[in-house]
Amino acid sequence: MNIIIAGDGEVGFHLAKTLSKVRHNITVVDPHSDLLKLLQTDSDLLTVTGNSTSISVLKEAGISDCDLLISVLHQENINIITCILGKRLGAKRTVARVSTIEYLNDDNKSMFKAMGIDEMVSPERIAAKEITNLLIRNTATEVFDFSGGLLSIYMTRLDKHTAFTDKTIADVAKEYPQMDARIVCIIRSGQTIIPGGDDYYREGDLIYLLLRPQSLEIVKTLFKKTEIQIKNAMILGGGRIGKRTALNIQDKIQLKIIEQDRDRCLNLADDLNNTMIINGNGSDISLLMDEGLRQTDAFIATTGSTETNILSCLHAHKQGVKKTIALVENISYIDVSQDIGIDTIINKKLITASYIARFTLSGEVTSSKWLSGIDAEVFEVIVKEKSLATKDIIMNLKIPSGVSIGGIIRDGESFIARGNTRIETGDKVVVFSLPESANKAMKLFN
Question: How many CA atoms lie within 13 A of 161 on its CB side?
Answer without folding.
Answer: 8
